[in-house]
Amino acid sequence: MSALLKVGDAHVAYGKVEAVRSVSLEVADNEIVTIIGANGAGKTTLLNAIMGILPLKGFAAFAGADMASLDIEDRVAAGLSLVPEHRELFGTMNVEDNLQLGAFRIPKAIAAKSFERVYTLFPRLKERRKQLAGTLSGGEQQMLAMGRALMGAPKLLMLDEPSLGLAPIIVADIFRTIGELRAAGVSVLLVEQNAQAALKIADRAYVMELGEFVLNGPASDIATNARVAASYLGFTHEGESAI
Amino acid sequence: MNTTIMLFLLQDGITNGAIYALLGLALVLVFAVTRVILIPQGEFVTYGALSYAMLATGQVPGTARLAVAMGVVAFGLDLYAARRALRLKPVSRSAALNIVLPAAILALTYALAGPKTPIAVNIVLSLLIVAVIGLFLYRIAFQPLAHTSVLVLLIASVGCHLALQGLGLVFFGAEGLRGPALSNAAVTLGPLRFTGQSLAVYGLTIAFIVGLWLFFGFTLMGKALRATAVNRLGARLVGIRTTLSGQIAFLLASVIGAISGILIVPITTLYYDTGFLIGLKGFIAAIIGGLVSYPLTAVAALVVGCVEAFSSFYASNFKEVIVFTLIIPVLLLRSLAAPAVEEEKD
Amino acid sequence: MSQRMPLLIFTAIMAAIPFIPGVPPFWIVLLDNIGLAALVAMGLVLLTGVGGLTSFGQAAFCGFGAYTTAVLTTAYGVSPWLTLPLSLLVSGIAAVLLGIVTVRLSGHYLPLGTIAWGIGLFYLFSKLEFLGRNDGISGIPPLSIGGLRMLDPGTIYYVIWIAVLISALLTMNLLDSRTGRAIRALRRGHVAGEAFGVQTPRAKLLVFIYAAVLAGLSGWLYAHFQRAANPTPFGAQAGIEYLFIAVVGGAGYVWGAVLGAGIVVILKEVLQSYLPYIFGGQSQLETIVFGILLVVLLQLAPTGVWPWLMSRLPFKPARKIPDTSLELPARERATSTTSVLLHVEKARKQFGGVIAVNDVSFDVQAREIVALIGPNGAGKSTTFNLITGVLTSTSGAISVLGNKVDNAPPQEVVKLGVSRTFQHVKLVPDMTVLENVAIGAHLRGHAGAISSMFRLDRADEARLLAEAARQIERVGLGEQIDQLAGSLSLGQQRIVEIARALCVDPLLLLLDEPAAGLRHMEKQRLAALLRQLRDSGMSVLLVEHDMGFVMDLADRIVVLDFGTKIAEGTPGAIKTNPDVIKAYLGATA
């Protein structure tokens, strides 16, 4: 198994507080990996550090190359992409411009193909392509954020809480699309609080608590782990089981 | 009131207003992209104007040497920033931009400067010099501060203004200078006489406004600049280098500043510290435009120019007081129209 | 007492300096200048560093102070001591006039506006006949006490530094009080403070006037120190320098102003006296170097020198432990004419062409938990904002206990017993949990700015803090009480917001996504707390996406979609409602 992303003994500090401690993680080609855990466990911090937004102490390599000296823009060019928790769209620009900028580092000819691919994955975006990003509904914004990231033809897409604040019915839609990405040759590193949904589509999972990985393994094993069931899955409910 | 006087004042006001509009646009641009409130915009004006005026007398202006010195510092900063992983390609690119470019401009200036150099060449040389100064100013002073608050950037901006203005005195002396007019043609229309110079002012202002509109609306780089202004993190996440956006914004601002200077130095005598006041008036226009609206800024600049022209005629003593207190009713209107809900961003 | 020690030592040293044999008189002049600058910078610390209002125009207020005494003492022969209150008054009135116009502005408008009127006022000073135009006014009499005429820098030194020390004490007292918390909350936006009754425009105006009066005091001292006044020291350049001093020292710290003044005044002096030797007489060199140093310093220490220095000192400030035995009297309840606690009748909100809330009606009864659910953008938070007065409704009626609240400001709504939390946490990250929560009790305290400055507010203050501590215990964050709010996890910050809302002593609690970011166990604890609140007589209206949490907790559910109410009923009914399944829950319920 060739590791696309390899992180070893990573520490990330937020000011004086060490939010991530000695974390090791791998994502292979064509794999969906999820990190589950409560808010404040350090999941977002870890993703941001892998992306280069926060400084990471330890080892991080992408596609076989050490990332220590690369900044965010270099990592984007290398094929790593993050859809952040707050989506960070260009609110006063329209959907099409947002997508076009997603292909900022990509030659024009390839960008045209990317447009096609994104519009096929998210037909809603095509309908709304002249609408300002800031006026889209929450679900559409999440689609646009994912679409913008996919425009750059990434090898690995990191998704930070894609279901946050969305109606259960939209969440189901988003997760279905994430599943489709693997078929399109994109690996996914998914951070989710909605552990149930995440474990359903992931191949492997890591469980994060207070900045450390306490458990990892195939997603199906994690889903049946008693400890995980008690603290993250809780009682199953009709409202959530829609996924 | 005499109609001829009124028309004359109006013409004067519109000419000045056009310059303020250019400066106001540059300020809006730089603020939107980098969050820097560019107080040294005025120095770009004086540097452009006085470099041009000195070149016209056949001398090499000190600004050309300043560009080289700033380039060396910028190169040093680049080396320091990349100290952990020095790779040949970025280092040689940095050397080309920061060392070779200003050195070439300096050499070119020495080679071409002379009492008989054509005006066009002098203009190009002055623009080149100020353009690289703008570029390096961003690299040296603002790029390392890019993550700080608007307030810190503003104070750094004031620091740059002080340093550049002081250097202006060293380069150009305390005496004012005037430059040769771009053209001596003139058109007479009724009681009004339009000089080639004032027509150039109008033409260039309109050309710049249209050009900026096309650039931001239709080019990928223009959109990338807007994206940086809207959401810096979002821009970085799609691979837009905010430093590149910042450099382009400063480059545009310094060129616009220098052009404004070259346009007015044949009309009025400029001193090393005149730019500050001119820049501030562009500023007032930019504030009226809310630091976001280009068209509103342009209109406001014309109003500022006209108010200035009329008040210098009727109450010359209080001209500056009137121009600068013009802002208060505007602020009052803005505060009445202030949105009830604050944006969810800290 | 230990907190007073450093201050006493500092006072003793400052008092002793002029008596040290061999101190050059020139040093005393420098110290005088440092004190004068520190006064202005101290105002800026409060205004800019704490309140978040940046002003480049403070030098103009010095001008008001200086020119007032200059004119009155020279042209009318008024005694300098009599002009002191007048100087402060004139600066204060100028601040009121300019402040009314400018303090409402947010972000960068304010600093830009202040540059503009700073320059405008400078030109006004230099053009007005009765202020002596550019030459200014000279021959201002010195201060005198009895027969002692303070002609030399060594005697006025004491007046200046007594003013600095008193101002510093008063400023620190003000910051550590009910009003101080309101001021410290300003920087994070006005919505949170207003939801708990803070009159933000008034608080902003207060700091603006306070800073201007300090600047006026500095100007008054300056006039009697120099015995002359001309426009130059009151121009834009000086205004910029004062702000620089505050930032160099550390814009959020009272002593940073004094430290910053020391650094900048001495640095300028050194540059002015030594640079010509090094570079040979070129004028303006010190400006160049000063400008460059400024940029370098900001790059190396953007938060200023004082916090850098403090973090290297071994001692930490003492913990404040509130005495929870003190009782805060319950809030006065509005008289009730109905059992319906909250009544929303055809509430409507339009933003331009977009209808965010479309004729929505629902009630909340006493002792009831009602949930508002729906996709993002369905109008839930907008409905909250209409109820709490943050937004004004386009049409419709909202009443609390039969009292109409339509379009009352948030400060009035909270008085009816409606308190809230926010979807995006609005705490002041550099204030402790205790201080943040105490803002919730703002309306239940009464001490004003003046009584806080003179420490007459202690009994009132102790009761507020006791109440805050009790509510923090109640939500289970007693361990974190003196941590900075910004250091807590987002989930805990949401709980802090609940404690803050409880400090209002509310009848109705509005919670915007309280469970977001909590893990399963914590959610259960939150649900238990909310049930307990209901059983003790409170009602809760909450927005929440976690359906498990909502279905288990709520007595009734209101479902919004695209601004319209599509269903209302018990959790059981909602779960099987076909419209809700289609729009929100999804197919397989």
Question: Overview of this structure, please?
Answer:
The complex is a heterotrimer of chains A (243), B (346) and C (589). By secondary structure, chain A is of the alpha/beta class. Chain A has helices spanning 43-51, 72-78, 95-102, 108-121, 123-127, 138-151, 168-183, 195-201, 219-224, 226-233, 238-241; strands at 3-14, 17-28, 32-36, 57-62, 65-66, 80-83, 156-160, 187-192, 204-209, 212-218. By secondary structure, chain B is mainly alpha-helical. Chain B has a domain at 30-179 and 195-271. In chain B, strand 1 and strand 2 (192-195) form a beta hairpin. In chain B, helix 1 packs antiparallel against helix 10 (242-264) and helix 2 (41-56) runs antiparallel to helix 5 (119-142). Chain C starts with a helix and ends with a helix. Chain C has helices spanning 4-16, 25-50, 58-75, 80-102, 109-127, 153-175, 178-186, 190-195, 200-226, 236-249, 254-279, 285-300, 305-310, 380-387, 410-413, 433-439, 449-453, 458-474, 490-502, 520-535, 547-553, 571-576, 578-585; strands at residues 137-138, 144-145, 148-149, 228-229, 340-351, 354-365, 369-373, 395-400, 403-404, 418-420, 508-512, 539-543, 556-561, 564-569. The chains are: A alpha/beta (243), B mainly alpha (346), C alpha/beta (589). Chains in contact: A-B, A-C, B-C. Chains B and C meet through helix 6, helix 11, helix 13 and helix 14 of B and helix 4, helix 5, helix 10 and helix 12 of C.
List keywords for this structure.
heterotrimer, A: 243 residues, alpha/beta, Rossmann fold, 2 domains, six-stranded mixed beta sheet, four-stranded antiparallel beta sheet, globular, B: 346 residues, mainly alpha, two-stranded antiparallel sheet, 14 helices, 2 strands, disordered C terminus
Short account of what is shown:
The complex is a heterotrimer of chains A (243), B (346) and C (589). Chain B has 346 residues and is mainly alpha-helical.
